[in-house]
Specification:
The protein is mostly helical. It has a domain of about 60 residues. The protein is flat and about 50 Å long.
Length: about 110
């Protein structure tokens, strides 16, 4: 586990990295016309994959990473707080629906990504 100071420093680095990534992404999307989503017909930007699988892959990190971080890296006070446990449970239930159940309910005619 991280010490309190080590965790703060790591969080600061991660926040800075996300901000830098946001600016880089904004700059790239302003200069490059990348086709994406259902309107993508262009070749050369990567493989076209079925919508169900793409949706699962896209949402899977949201289902896996937060509960793992909560279970392994939260302090005992945080983990024993019922409010935190309820909120994490609701988050996980939402992403079970979004990651597993929704792709199963998608129409077979969904456009590939």
């Amino acid at each position: 586990m991280f010490s309190a100071m080590g965790a703060e420093k790591l969080l600061s680095y991660l926040q800075f990295g996300m901000i830098v990534t946001a600016f880089l992404t904004f700059g790239a999307t302003m200069t490059i016309n990348a086709p994406y989503g259902r309107y993508s017909t262009s070749k050369g930007w990567g493989p076209i994959i079925p919508a169900r699988f793409a949706w699962f892959v896209m949402e899977c990190p949201n289902l896996i990473i937060p509960p793992v971080v909560y279970i392994h890296y939260s302090t005992p006070e945080c983990a024993q707080n019922y409010s935190n446990s309820i909120l994490m449970s609701l988050f996980v239930m939402h992403y079970i629906n979004r990651t597993i159940l929704y792709p199963l309910r998608m129409p077979k005619t969904s456009s590939p990504m």
